[in-house]
Amino acid sequence: MGKRIKRWGPGLLLISPSLVVLAVFVYGLIAWTVKVSMSDEHDALGSKGFVGLKNYTDLFTNDINDRFTHSLKNLLIFTVVFVVGTMVLGLLWAFLLDRGVRAEGVFRTVYLFPMAVSFVASGVVWRWLMNSNTGDDAGGLNWIFGELHLGFLQNSWWTNPDWGMAAMAMPAIWQLSGYVMALFLAGFRGIPQELREAAVMDGTSTFQLYRHVIFPQLTPVALSALIIVGHMSMKMFDLIMSVSGAQWLTEVPAVYVWQALLTSDYAKAAAIAVLLLLFVAVLIVPYLVHTTRAERRS
Amino acid sequence: MTTTTTPAPPATPTPAAPRRPRRDITPASVTGRAVRYALLLFFLIVVLMPAYVLLVTSFKSGSEIGVTGQWNLPQRWTTASWVKAWDALGPSFVRTFQLAVPVALISSFIGAANGFVLSRWRFPGADAVFTLILFGMFIPYQAVMIPLREIVTTIGVPPGIPTLTLVHVIYGIPICTLIFRNYYATTVPEEIIEAGRVDGAGLLRTFAWIILPVSMPGFVVTVIWQFTSAWNDYLFAIFLSNTRNGPITIALNALAGAQSPDYAASMAGALITSLPTLFVYVVLGRWFIGGLMAGSVKS
After folding, report:
1. Is residue B45 within 8 Å of A107, Cβ to Cβ?
2. At A219, which CATH number?
3. What are the tens digits of pLDDT across the range A29-63?
């Protein structure tokens, strides 16, 4: 026994500072937030009585103007458009590049470059592009639509009270499609060449080759991409703060936390943050457990 | 399941397109190629469009920003907006370097040590511990932000850059650990470590003499990753700093976020804000992508 501890003990010792820090700053602070979310600390005075799940139920049933439900609806629209948009574009780009093109590196570099830019910086230009004026006052993208005689496409973008969040997803799609492309491209390139050649030998058409050989092999990559992009979407904060600022029209839970804190409503902010964490955990935890298990099997 | 379980060696670029069996040139294949290139070019233009707007607008003077001709090149090129933006962003630009460089270096060393232990000097339960560590990189930081603000004040970390440095280092541990763990697992053979152990090499000696010398590619990836995340971060910055002591994203948002912003100066500011990370991306692109791929855990 002593010999075995001598074998792995130093390793554990080396990593233990990180483990302690993460135990405190990840799990400890989450526990603390959960505690705040069950208190009645609704102002800077902080009475800190225990109220159980009241803050959570209040969010769904007793929030002024159904503000929290509204932020969830915004998040849902944003997430659907963002996830579908990046997945479709990412797969399409990877598909186009996989077939082998000249100057592939140039296309890849350009498609991916928005990843290097912060949402705060790109928000500046997207606010300009998504100018909500139409007709003679049209600016940004609306102006282009006007010039191209596509006036019917002119719209109020994120300021539309019903579907504005779909427009808000556009900058996010612009920024992250390249990332999904990189994932898919690695997936395409990971498929053994023999598999393709064998299929071609058998007289498989290109369509069938992709339909029956290549796409099924990409399922794990697609799943990874879906989970990464999906959880980023739930946390979306910078982009919205930069394009519209914190306001009712475009509020999502991540922004609502910030707004609640500005009014020193700690309990409410904590409750929203915990719900946000739960949403993300539902997506991420099975993924982490699955990948760890799959790794151990191999 | 090979694609999810084989860890990508971080520093390898996306492999080149494999050679395909030569096909006969038919009218159909020519049309196919034309469509493919047309689509690729179309998306190239779409993706570059915001960059064009940024550049063009930033060289206009404030008075030239009207409704007419806003997509045109400037009638008179001027750097006035760049000067104005630099006046607003300069101090925070310097501060952000003071934040991002130490964050990148410290995180990388911590990640190297952790990754080494979790891949090549394992202890019972190492996999479970690794999963618990990884979870930390996915959490929405709002879920820790309320007590975090209290805790950094209580333990007396000076506000602004020192606080942000600490926070970025802590929450960067999971991704850096992941990158190095996957890197060592694929590049350092177990046998070398075992051979060292037989010769009596302890943990620190193995790490310093066997592991660190081959760690450069891993370091490049984590340094780029952490530098970029710290540079581009807005969430921690807005919760834990302000325009006087915070990083450049805060300053840019103050410059551009006004009710009727000066678009020329805002866009010059957005470019100034993006230059360091864009530089890193263009010069060290393939390693940058290595970090991105690691972000998908085990793609």
Report:
1. no
2. 1.10.3720.10
3. 999 999 999 988 888 776 678 888 999 999 999 88
In chain A, the number of structural domains is: 1
Segment A238-254 shows an average pLDDT of 92
- Write out A151-170 in H/E/C secondary structure: HHHCCCHHHCCCCHHHHHHH
Note whether A170 and A77 are within 8 A (CB).
no
Chain B, 163 to 222: residues with Cβ < 8 Å from chain A are: 170-171, 173-174, 177, 202-204, 207
Three-state DSSP state, B126: helix
Residue A39 carries which DSSP code? B
Determine whether the interchain pair A10/B203 forms a contact, defined as Cβ–Cβ distance below 8 Å: yes
- Residue B19 is which amino acid? R
Rounded CA-CA distance A226/A84 in Å is 9
Which residues of chain A lie closer than 8 angstroms to B142, CB-CB? 237, 254, 257-258, 269, 272-273, 276-277
Measured CA to CA, the distance from residue B123 to residue B128 in angstroms comes to 11
pTM, whole model, 2 decimals?
A: 0.89
**Residue B118 falls inside a structural domain:** yes
pLDDT single digits (tens) A69-87: 999 999 999 999 999 999 9
**What CATH number should be reported for the domain holding residue B156?**
1.10.3720.10
Domain contains A48 = no
What is the phi/psi pair of residue B261, to 5°? Answer: -70, 155
Which residue segment(s) compose the domain that B111 sits in?
Answer: 81-294
A47 domain-assigned: no
Specify the amino acid at residue A269: A
Q: What is the ipTM of this complex?
A: 0.90
- Give pLDDT tens digits for B89-148: 999 999 999 999 999 999 999 999 999 999 988 888 888 999 999 999 999 999 999 999
Q: Is the Cβ–Cβ distance between B28 and B39 less than 8 Å?
A: no
**Among chain A residues, CA nearest to B126:** A12
Structure tokens at A265: 């409503």
In a domain, B168, yes or no: yes
Per the structure, the count of domains in chain B is 1
Per-residue confidence band for B6, with pLDDT thresholds at 50, 70 and 90: very low
**Residues in a beta bridge with A39:** A50
Residue A40 domain-assigned (yes or no):
no
Determine contact, residues B78/B60, Cβ cutoff 8 Å. Answer: yes
User: Comparing C-alpha atoms, which of B162, B161, B183, B181 is closest to residue B173?
Assistant: B181
Q: Does B107 touch chain A (CB under 8 A)?
A: no
Sign of CA dihedral A244, A245, A246, A252: positive
- Domain holding A173, by residue range, is 70-297
Cβ atoms of B148 and A25 within 8 Å: the answer is yes
Please report whether residue A110 resides in a domain. Answer: yes
